[in-house]
């Protein structure tokens, strides 16, 4: 068995530096693409945990079945990624600005029972996805929610109103989240885009908050 070929394979110093440079470039590219994918793409894991998994997994996998890739190259990749990870986390601990730049910060999605639509659009977080998250936490309508935050790992944190503070809100379940065909002056309706509550005179009134014209019957039930 040729151990020199397995571990070194005539590795030159110039190629060692090339590996280190490739690691740095790929490390940055992975972070950039994960940031561009939005927080939903890294749910439950931080960007750097995903980066380490992808980087180390790729580095460890190739030498297992590729004959002309020596273990030394894989070791250099693994070592470089760990050093980059430790360096990045060190600077994140030292600087809040760097931490927010790389990982982002929590985004307010619901405030006082209304969707913060500009942040929903910015995070590429569709209504259906967000409604599904709220339904899984037993939220029936937005009037039950005081504040909802989209965390940096893609999860949603919610603060609820007390039962005596619950207001009319946009329903979140498909059967109730249907556009009205007519309106009653004594009923309250919710904008299907932002959750604004209003008494309607006609079904195609423009929402003063977001400019949309789609309404559904608002709800005011307590949390179960």
Automatic annotation (TrEMBL):
This is DUF421 domain-containing protein. It comes from the Bacteria. Keywords: Cell membrane, Membrane, Transmembrane, Transmembrane helix. The keyword Cytoplasm does not apply. It is a multi-pass membrane protein. It is found in: Cell membrane. The chain crosses the membrane at residues 15-34, 46-65, 71-93. Residues 93-168 form the YetF C-terminal domain. It comes from Sphingobacterium hungaricum. GO terms for cellular component: plasma membrane. Belongs to the UPF0702 family. InterPro entries: DUF421 (IPR007353), UPF0702_alpha/beta_dom_sf (IPR023090). Pfam families: DUF421 (PF04239).
């Amino acid at each position: 068995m040729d151990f020199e070929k397995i571990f070194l394979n005539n590795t030159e110093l110039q190629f060692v530096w090339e590996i280190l440079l490739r690691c740095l470039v790929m490390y940055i590219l992975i972070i950039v693409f994960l940031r561009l994918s939005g927080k939903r793409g890294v749910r439950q894991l931080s960007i750097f945990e995903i980066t380490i998994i992808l980087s180390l997994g790729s580095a460890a996998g190739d030498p297992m079945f590729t004959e002309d890739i020596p273990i030394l190259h894989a070791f250099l990749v693994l070592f470089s990624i760990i050093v980059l990870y430790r360096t990045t986390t060190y600077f994140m601990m030292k600087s809040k600005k760097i931490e927010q730049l790389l990982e982002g910060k929590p985004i307010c999605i619901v405030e006082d029972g209304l969707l913060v639509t500009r942040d929903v659009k910015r995070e590429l977080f569709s209504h259906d996805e967000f409604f599904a998250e709220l339904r899984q936490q037993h939220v029936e309508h937005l009037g039950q929610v005081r504040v909802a935050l989209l965390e940096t790992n893609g999860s949603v944190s919610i603060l609820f109103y007390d039962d005596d503070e619950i207001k009319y809100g946009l329903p979140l379940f498909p059967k109730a989240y249907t556009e009205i065909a007519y309106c009653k002056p004594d009923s309250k309706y919710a904008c299907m885009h932002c959750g604004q509550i209003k008494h309607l005179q006609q079904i195609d009134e423009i929402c003063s908050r977001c400019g949309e014209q789609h309404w559904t019957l608002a709800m005011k039930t307590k949390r179960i």
